[in-house]
Amino acid sequence: MNRRRNEEKTPFLIFFALFMAAVIAAGGGVLHAYFKNRQVQISREIDATERNIVQCRLDIRTSEMRMDLLLNRFVIRKQVQQNGSLLRPIVMSVIEEVGDVAPGRQSVASATP
Predict the structure, then answer these.
(1) What is the C-alpha separation between 42 and 48, in angstroms, rounded?
(2) Over 60: is that where the pLDDT of 54 sits?
(3) What is the rounded CA–CA span in Å between residue 76 and residue 85?
(4) Is 24 helix (H, G, I), strand (E, B) or coil?
């Protein structure tokens, strides 16, 4: 039960193992903090991107509304009258509907005269 006086009390390997365990635990803590920080940063970037998408959709809707206002035929007619243009409305009976291809012809150009 008694130890010899010349025998080492604690082997060096135990101190080394404790030091390595502390280094591994500290490294794990640092890595955990790093990855958690990256997770928060990525979450903020995702939120910013989603806000940007919502803003772009709003801009698209606003542009479509403005285009509809500009392409409204009644507004165009009023602007043409205000500008003093010589353009005048035509009667519906004058409008002629033209088909894509004339009947009997297969092509526009022919090789035979």
Answers:
(1) 10
(2) yes
(3) 12
(4) helix
DSSP letters for 24-82:
HHHHHHHHHHHHHHHHHHHHHHHHHHHHHHHHHHHHHHHHHHHHHHHT-HHHHHHHHHH
Type and span of the H or E element at 103: none
Query: Which tokens in the block code for residue 24?
Result: 């591994």
pTM: 0.53
Q: What is the token pair recorded at 92? A: 């519906």
Rounded Cα–Cα distance for residues 77 and 55 (Å): 33
CA 34, CA 40: separation in Å to the nearest integer?
10
**What is the chain's mean pLDDT, rounded?**
85
A 10 A CB-CB count for 93 gives: 6
By the 10 Å C-beta count (0-12 exposed, 13-18 middle, 19+ buried), 80 is classed as middle
Structure tokens at 10: 């604690």
CA 46 to the chain's CA centroid: 10
**Helix or strand or coil: residue 13?**
helix
